[in-house]
Amino acid sequence: MSKVFLVSGFLGSGKTTFIIKLMKYLSKKNLKVALIVNELGEIGIDNQFMTQLGYNVWELFGGCICCTLSSNLETTLQELEENYQPDIILVEPSGAAEPKSIYDSFLNLDIPVENIHNFLILDPTRIDMFVEILTPLLTSSLNISDTVLINKLDLAEESEIERCKSVISKADKDLTAFFLDFHNEDYPEKFRTFIDRLVLPGGE
Amino acid sequence: MYQSEFNPVTIEMQMTLSEEASLNHWAEISRYYFNAYAQEITKGEKIYIGHIKVFATVNESSYFKLSIFKPTIPAEVDIQGDAWTSKLSLLVNSFVYGIDEETTMKVLESVSEKMEKEFMVKTKFTLKPVHMHGHHHHEHDH
Question: Helices marked H in A87-188 — which ranges?
């Protein structure tokens, strides 16, 4: 059965950049990867960009997979599992989606909890805005995540990174946090080892 | 979900120069254009950028994606290919908290006027209101 990685994060956090890099990395490991993208807006941009880069993208369009398109997400996941049998299914929801609802869709399909991994991409340059106007989304996202990736380190102030750490420490659960620059060619060894453990047979 | 707060505004845009220019040059013009747009649209209280995403294509192998998430941080551009063209097609998804379609269009008009003066680039853009396929499209020329 496929492993399912949910990559959540607010609009503009860097989800697409992270996914493109992760897909390259997983392809080098000869893993079969499928990507489901849900984007708001009249026409999808990330879908077009990723398709141009040569990736197989299943786009869910015309609503949000956390609410209006949740049944489409479940159907797409089932079809992928039956017809394509990927090692890993990456799910990139819109940055305005409520990730808890998407996680519930995975559970509705009886995907084993150990096969689901939830990454939250956190943009430190806008941590003040998240806390000011998006606290419910931030809290909910942290509560369903198991790994938090803090990126844009080159653009963030030290105080913003410290505030991210503080926000993460207040979550109701223990979270694994990585500080990454998505534009670096290679992953740091610690993160590479972490991903390998998740994706390679016998890695967990 | 939080779509109601960060209402997506989708715009189809065409930029035209009198002569062909490289994709890199177009990326620079677009970077300047959307940096100006981001700064202009966030003038006011309680206005936040969710994401301004632009996808520009010349052909299948020459295109770029531009991204802005904060007005004080310049646009990031990922360029693929090196085609030359005098006319560039762009697709814009603008998610800005506290801004409606009408304001978006006014700001685009204002930025387009400045761009025509400074870079001699002509801009034509069409608003595509979400969930209103084929209806009520606004066209603007500069």
Answer: 99-108, 127-133, 135-144, 158-169
Residues of chain B predicted below pLDDT 50: 132-137
User: Cβ contacts (< 8 Å) between A94 and chain B: which residues?
Assistant: 1, 3
Residue B1 lies in a domain: no
* B2 part of a folded domain: no
The predicted pLDDT at position B60 comes to 87
What DSSP string runs through A98-109? -HHHHHHHHHHT
Please report whether residue B3 resides in a domain.
Answer: no
Domain count, chain B: 1
Task: Confirm whether B33 is domain-assigned.
Answer: yes
In chain A, the percentage of residues whose pLDDT exceeds 90 is 59
Judging contacts by C-beta atoms under 8 Å, the chain B residues touching residue A48 are 55, 57, 91
Question: Which member of A45, A67, A123 has the closest CB to residue B55?
Answer: A45
CB A147 within 8 A of CB A119: yes
Specify the residue for token string 């009520």. B136
Report the amino acid identity of residue A12. Answer: G
Sheet holding B48-59, edge to edge: B76-80, B62-68, B48-59, B84-97, B8-22, B122-128, B138-141
ipTM of the complex: 0.82
Which residues constitute the domain of residue B23? 8-141
pTM: 0.87
CATH at B26: 3.30.70
Per-residue pLDDT band for A59 (boundaries 50, 70, 90) equals: confident
Cβ neighbours of A42 in B, within 8 Å: 8, 10, 93, 128-130, 133
In the CATH scheme, what architecture does the domain A3-199 have? 3-Layer(aba) Sandwich (3.40)
Question: Where is A195: in which H helix or E strand?
Answer: helix A189-199
* Residue A203: predicted pLDDT: 59
| A77 contacts A4 by C-beta, under 8 angstroms | yes
If pLDDT is split at 50, 70 and 90, which confidence band does A174 have?
confident
> Taking CB atoms and an 8 Å limit, are A155 and B73 in contact across chains?
yes
Q: Answer whether residue A53 shows pLDDT above 90.
A: no
Query: Average pLDDT of chain A?
Result: 88
User: B3 vs A94: CB contact, 8 Å cut-off?
Assistant: yes
